[in-house]
Amino acid sequence: MLPGGLVSLKLTVIGTGYLGATHAASMAELGFDVLGVDVDKEKIDALGRGELPIHEPGLPELLRKHTESGRLRFTTSFEEAGAFGDVHFIAVGTPQRAGEHAADMTYVDASVTAIARAATKDSLIVGKSTVPVGSARRLKALAAQEAREGVTIDFAWNPEFLREGYAVEDTLRPDRLVIGSDSATAEPVLREVYAQAISMNTPFISTDFETAELVKVAANAFLATKISFINAFSEVTETVGGDIRTLADAIGLDSRIGRRFLNAGIGFGGGCLPKDIRALQARVSELGLDSTMRFLNEVDEVNLRRRDRTVYVAETLLGNLEGKRVAVLGVAFKPNSDDVRDSPALDVAARLFNSGADVSVYDPAANSNAAKRYPRLNYVDALTDAVNEADLVMMLTEWSEFVRIDPAELAELVAHKVMFDGRNVLDHRTWKDAGWDIVSLGHKSELLDPVSL
Ligand SMILES: NC(=O)c1ccc[n+]([C@@H]2O[C@H](COP(=O)([O-])OP(=O)(O)OC[C@H]3O[C@@H](n4cnc5c(N)ncnc54)[C@H](O)[C@@H]3O)[C@@H](O)[C@H]2O)c1
Ligand SMILES: O=c1ccn([C@@H]2O[C@H](COP(=O)(O)OP(=O)(O)O[C@H]3O[C@H](CO)[C@@H](O)[C@H](O)[C@H]3O)[C@@H](O)[C@H]2O)c(=O)[nH]1
């Protein structure tokens, strides 16, 4: 039996990346003793010193507070984790498999195996990573098979819906909690873990494994579809005219549709939406349902076409990219994050560089991650350095620092006053009044040819 009483539960969080580091520090904030576990020793050493290796607003403060209080510790030792934890959260990566659409389950399988073998007391393993439907049932059997003699391992799936940039807020005050299990014992333990959110009337959905796994990928597939829906209309308004922002505002006023996730621009990226829609298609195909999620191919294609169109816009505005100075503002996949996984902005910057442009990049947090992927771009530490003598300025990630730019001040620094607003967040009237040519996706421009597909 697990010990009763809220703070007597000891938690481990296995995998301490964007999701795991947030979950570990947030659980410590709720009063639990937490042990973060990772195979990356450098990461564990940094976290143990209270240093966060990623950019996530609010998380450095929580990490420092609880490494200092002693409530939050980090280790690479599964033996230590197995002796310590009553509940083990699995938060390791499930990236796209190289050359395929399917999710790579290697890390999940390895971590479940390792903790099941190491557990020296009855405990509950709770999967949080995003996985193909059917994984939880398989992993539960794997954990039971690997457990030591006399040790019982319960199993639950508890998908995570946090957004980067709001990760702490989303963890402490989630929209909903979803728990999948097939035992009577897992749910009460997770009700104890999440007692604070439950006391704030957070909906708590207790269901089977398959529903819990599918809720997660369904949510991301819906969000991706919403973005590609508005971006498909961008292709139309770029051709016939019209204003994509007004269109989004107007349909968004229908409460059945809603305005959120209808921001047209260079499209979605990150470590979640792109790989999750591909993994979902791969999984349903494996299940013999080849046609069911075929529309997600289109969602993916519309999304990737926005990047092609952005490169085309730069080529057209500059005539020829060779030797032209392009200032790229923002390479993170979204603002308030240093994450460049599948970042549309970084992809575009690299393609312009490969076509001969002289690309200067400034991002408030993502320069160093971007430099690990594309070391040959010219990364600078200030916006003013990036735009110096630029022939074209491209705002590709809508950090507030960029949204607030004064076009008159910027005009003093550039060689040519040409702005590409990749996220449809700038006030075009103000920019035009300051003497700029400003172009964005979703608007017809006399400077560009219509979309042709
Ligand atoms: N990033 C998000 O916003 C977010 C939100 C919800 C769900 N998710 C899902 O959560 C999972 C993790 O995503 P992430 O963005 O945190 O990834 P990440 O790459 O930032 O972190 C994964 C961590 O797991 C560690 N790891 C790998 N193998 C391990 C093992 N055998 N034992 C212990 N640690 C191991 C890695 O070293 C890394 O630190 C993915 O399935 C993702 O789809 C992510
Ligand atoms: O109207 C919009 C909204 C978003 N985006 C882009 O879509 C991507 C994803 O944005 P967002 O969903 O806010 O970021 P993530 O942090 O990746 O969060 C998503 O992926 C996580 C991991 O699965 C989930 O937990 C979250 O609920 C889900 O929103 C980014 O590139 C955004 O720029 C748009 O282009 N237009």
UniProtKB/TrEMBL annotation:
**Keywords assigned by UniProt?**
NAD, Oxidoreductase
Is Glycosyltransferase found in the keyword set? no
Could you tell me what reaction this enzyme catalyses? UDP-alpha-D-glucose + 2 NAD(+) + H2O = UDP-alpha-D-glucuronate + 2 NADH + 3 H(+)
Name the pathway it acts in: Nucleotide-sugar biosynthesis; UDP-alpha-D-glucuronate biosynthesis; UDP-alpha-D-glucuronate from UDP-alpha-D-glucose: step 1/1
Residues reported in the UniProt entry to bind substrate = 161-164, 216, 261-265, 269, 334
Active-site residues annotated for this sequence: 272
Q: Name one GO biological process term.
A: UDP-glucuronate biosynthetic process
- Binding residues for NAD(+): 38, 43, 94, 130, 164, 275, 341
SMART domains in alphabetical order: UDPG_MGDP_dh_C (SM00984)
| SUPFAM superfamilies tied to this protein | 6-phosphogluconate dehydrogenase C-terminal domain-like, NAD(P)-binding Rossmann-fold domains, UDP-glucose/GDP-mannose dehydrogenase C-terminal domain
Q: Output this protein's name.
A: UDP-glucose 6-dehydrogenase
* Species, as recorded: Arthrobacter echini
